[in-house]
Write a structure and sequence with these properties.
The protein is an alpha/beta fold and 380 residues long. It contains 14 helices and eleven strands.
């Protein structure tokens, strides 16, 4: 683990002694000091994800592990495990808090059952800000302190967490038959997680909250008959295209989520300051790397779903999107009866009102330019 204060003092004394000695004595002092340095063992970071080994998100977690190891010159080695290796996908928070795991790579919504406020860190109401906008809120708009308050003060957990990789808005999901009206959604048994479950229930669907690896088997058994997970790559690796052929992109149910990098607080605070910095700021490095990779593989796999698997890709209808916003409007007052959640939502609204105004006013119409150079492709 880390070097103790005594070992640092010994090293300094050895250095001073070496300077005062000459010839053979100096060489002997140097020889005696060397083993203390060479004997240091790497710090092991035992980290489990909430993703199956086959999911692209396990690769995204590996991007983080690789950066930590390389930047620390292997002073930290990461033992990265998939969901189920130690605990289930939804149990990583407890495992990190209890010290069973040193760290987890997950999303806060997976512990929504412990406190609904978890959903506000990625899957809460969408006021118009993208995932990038809301990740900026976490780091620049006060979100990180709200997260610390929730986990450490409100819930009394012994954890430290950071957010990274602003996810592209999650698709409305997979349906066996086309759907374009709210009436057509009535009675669907649908998979989602967190406050999105409340939202979809408000649209007339019953909801099952399942980890990603359980979705397709549940669809095959008839436990659910429609679902969303996250993106074309993960969805296709799960085999979504084998149980449904209508894939609806665009939705307000989870449009601002990021990964959660969760650490046991004792493990994290025991690190030397430079290693703490590497563990923390590697999240930012992996966030960029994940974004670049996602742009590549998500778009390529969406084409494969269309061209090789016979999937019809749709944009969710304006009627359903409008109904989602109206449903959020109904849910928000109930959330705001909780004092903590109201403070978070007030902060997010103020951030989005200011920041997204700039973003939207400044952005040209990219769809107009795209349609000019690739005419007709957007008319799905």
């Amino acid at each position: 683990m880390t070097r103790t204060d005594d070992s640092r003092q010994l090293s300094r004394r050895s250095f001073i002694k070496k300077g005062a000695l000459g010839g053979t004595a100096a060489a002997a002092a140097s020889t005696l000091a060397a083993p203390a340095v060479l004997a240091q063992s790497p710090v092991v970071l035992k980290m489990q994800t909430s993703w199956p080994a086959s999911d692209v998100w396990q690769e995204f977690a590996q991007d983080y592990a690789n950066r930590v190891q390389e930047m620390s010159n292997n002073r930290i080695t990461v033992d990265l495990l998939p969901a189920g290796a130690v605990v289930g996908a939804f149990q990583v928070l407890d495992a990190v808090n209890d010290g069973v795991l040193d760290a987890a790579h997950s999303v806060p919504v997976y512990w929504y059952g412990k406190n609904k406020a978890a959903s506000l860190f990625g899957t809460g109401p969408v006021f118009g800000g993208s995932a990038t906008t809301m990740l900026a809120w976490f780091y620049q708009g006060g979100g990180a302190e709200f997260y610390r308050e929730l986990t450490q003060d409100v819930m009394g957990l012994d954890v430290v967490g950071f957010m990274g990789f602003p996810m592209f808005a999650q698709p409305f999901g997979w349906f066996k038959n086309p759907v374009s009206t709210v009436a057509e959604l009535q009675g669907f048994k649908y998979r989602t997680v967190g406050l999105a479950a409340d939202l979809m229930q408000a649209l007339g669907m019953s909801v099952a909250q399942l980890p990603g690896g359980e979705i397709v088997p549940a669809m095959e058994r008839g436990v659910i008959d429609a679902f969303e997970f996250n993106n074309p790559t993960s969805d296709s690796r799960f085999g979504a295209q084998d149980v449904a052929k209508n894939y609806y992109l665009s939705s307000y149910h989870q449009a601002s989520e990021s990964f959660e990098f969760l650490f046991n607080r004792g493990w994290y605070e025991d690190l030397d300051p430079d290693l703490q910095a590497i563990v923390k700021y590697a999240v930012e490095a992996a966030s960029s790397a994940n974004t670049f990779k996602a742009m590549d593989v998500y778009s390529a796999d969406l084409q494969k779903l269309q061209n090789e698997s016979g999937v019809t890709v749709h944009r969710t209808s304006k009627e359903i999107l409008d109904a989602q916003i109206a449903a959020w409007d109904q849910l928000i007052p109930t959330l705001e009866t909780d004092e903590f959640m109201k403070r978070v939502l007030d902060s997010q609204r103020a951030w989005v009102e200011r920041v997204t105004y700039y973003e939207l006013m400044n952005a040209p119409d990219y769809a107009l330019a795209y349609d000019h150079y690739f005419p007709g492709k957007l008319a799905l």
